[in-house]
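Input sequence (517 aa), recorded before submission:
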Amino acid sequence: MRMLTTLGLISVLACRTDKSITVQNPTPKADILSHDDGSVILEGIATLFVGSVSDSNHTPDQLTTIWYVNGIVVCDGVIPDENGETTCELSLGLADTEITLAVQDAENSRGEDTIVVTIEPTESPEAQIVSPVENGVYYSDQLIEFEGLVSDNEDAAEDLSIRWVSTLDGELSNVASTPNTGGEVIGFGSLSEGQHAIQLFVTDTSGKETQESVIIDVGPSNTAPACEILTPMDGAVGTNGSVVTFTGSASDVDVEPGWLTVTWTSDKDGELGGSIPNSDGTIGFAYSDLTVDTHNITLTVTDEIGATCTDSVFYTVGTPPSIAINSPVNGDLVSEGSPISFSATVSDAQDQPNDVSLEWVANGNVISTQGATSTGEALFTYGALSFGVYNLVVTATDTDGLTDSAQVTFTINGLPTAPVVSINPSTPTTSSSLNVNINSPSMDPEGVTPTYTYEWQLGGQTQSTYTSSSLPSSATSKGEQWTVVVTPNDGIADGVAGTASVVIGNTPPTVASVTVT
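Predicted structure, token format:
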């Protein structure tokens, strides 16, 4: 009976011992939390996958997780955190659709979870080079602006990667390459002399890259432009308020004239204005508001990068003098040989009247340079002008060279010549009437036929009773000397007179009848 009991006890113990040996290790569990079957993932975009693992008889730190893409390990040996969470960041291609999370405990028991996702293709980024440009002018000693515009349908502009590359100088690491939120990327850098293909590379977060390029020529060091003022000449003078036409020329060995800018300035009035040269380099600029003063006018020509050329002239703006002719007056008639009084009044805003020079010109000939006194009066007498119509121009010139003029027209009348006259009879007696003969008539230089007036003189005294060409015998007595003065007149003035004289002789007695006794 004890033996049986003992055998039974042994049997029971044996059964208990066999049962403990066959106890199985529980399988850990894995669950992908961040995505489900059919989730849409953007191609190439870094995506964080999150999973949860657990084990009934192991703590999280005793577990190891492995992430697979299409059966290929991508995140190996990841220890979950204290909550059993595990992560793996993936950038998936178009064919990377199967995602598996596997968990393994310390006793090599393994569990897993698999999902199938849809990969949505992404687009490449876009790039545009704004600067430099193909037809630009660039110099090896000057900074060049590099400006681009980048964008991407999936990424923010500031998340894009930028590179500037020159085929001649390599990657331009010194040029700023971080776009702003608007997609603008702007930087400055230098390039060596020569022809460059400038490339702008932009890469999005999925790794897709776009390249844009432009070919430019970089020249040697910049040469400043050349320039010259053509008009007005240095020292020229103009009147206040008049339009001044400034002209010049500009050229540059590096660029066309249209790339240059022009500025005209005065040391008295400041900047006057600007312009762009014509295609042949000529420059024109008109200005009418210069103040009364002597100006240093400067032409400044600036090229596209700020190098300049200057030229300057002195130009004086003043007010001209004022001149008025007092005599002769317009339409005056003066007899030939008579002295003519010339007078004028002069004034000037800047100069004293006696500092203003005068030139008196009659019919193109200078007859005087008589100036004015300090009171402004100019006066002289001149009598050497022959007969004719005269245009008198008086020009006043101040110390700046500014002028004013006045003119009048007057006439100098040519006088008839003296006639050649005689008295008939040449040997008169008291019974003779005296008659004037004009042997040679007067000649008038203007062609007018003169008329004559007669003056009879007895002993040198004018006898006002007698004014005709005849003198009656009753007026004479024996021994008297009678003179006739014949004066020609052209209708304007008397000419030179002609004269003749006779002495009255005795009249012999007469016999009326003879009686002889």
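Checked by second reader. The helical segments are 2-21.
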